[in-house]
Amino acid sequence: MAHATDTTGTEPTRRDFLMLTTGAFGAVGAAALVVPLLGQLAPDAQVVAAGAPIDLDLAPIAEGQAIKLFWRGKLIFVRNRTKKEIDEAKAVDVATLRDPQTDEQRTKAGHERYLVVYGNCTHLGCVPLGNAAGEPKGEFDGWFCPCHGSHYDSSGRIRKGPAPLNLPVPPYAFTADTKIKIG
């Protein structure tokens, strides 16, 4: 007489083990394919850095100090202006400027002490001096381009030399009293 096997019990069979092992290997294999695929769909770090906005804490920038940074591959000057520099910039007769803009048009209301401008001369793209200690600031207490002699004031406006336009102001906004987001 043949013995019947009980297949209704809870004891795992070899078939159960093989099914579980096959399913686990299949899941690992699928993940091994999907993860790199999703990684390829995301932009790389250079692309993100090239266009992503950047946050900057202005608190470490001392009064009268300026820093340089790069956003989208372009040089940016950020300057914490002194009261004297702000007063000089506001006192300028806008009608005498080659590229007429008031200081108020170039800064954010309530945050006039911080000036944020692109850091290339509008003549031929040179980098003006006036950010580091000991660098000449030109005749108007701003920036001086030694290559061709352009002078910018403390508001980044062209005052003398061949440059046709003011240093442009990049898109930025204050996110807190001493924090900005450029871009």
Description:
The protein is of the alpha+beta class and 183 residues long. The protein has two domains: 13-42; 49-182, 3-layer Sandwich (Rieske Iron-sulfur Protein), CATH 2.102.10. It contains four helices and nine strands; from the N terminus they run ααβββααββββββ. A three-stranded antiparallel beta sheet has the order 1-9-8, with no helix packed on it. It has a three-stranded antiparallel beta sheet with strand order 2-3-4. The radius of gyration is 31 Å and the shape is elongated. The N and C termini lie far apart (85 Å).
Summarize the structure.
The chain has 183 residues and is of the alpha+beta class. The chain contains 4 helices and 9 strands. It has a 3-stranded antiparallel sheet, with no helix packed on it. Strands 2-3-4 form a 3-stranded antiparallel sheet. It has a 3-stranded antiparallel sheet with strand order 5-6-7, with no helix packed on it.
As for the number of domains, it is 2
Strand element count? 9
Can you summarize the main beta sheet? 3 strands, antiparallel
Query: Overall mean pLDDT score?
Result: 86
* SSE run: HHEEEHHEEEEEE
How would you name the CATH homologous superfamily of the largest domain? Rieske [2Fe-2S] iron-sulphur domain
Mind telling me which CATH architecture of the largest domain this is? 3-layer Sandwich
H/I helix tally: 4
Quick one: overall form?
elongated
In CATH's first tier, which class of the largest domain applies? Mainly Beta
Subcellular location: Cell membrane
Pfam families: Rieske (PF00355), UCR_Fe-S_N (PF10399)
GO molecular function, one term: 2 iron, 2 sulfur cluster binding
Function: Component of the ubiquinol-cytochrome c reductase complex (complex III or cytochrome b-c1 complex), which is a respiratory chain that generates an electrochemical potential coupled to ATP synthesis.
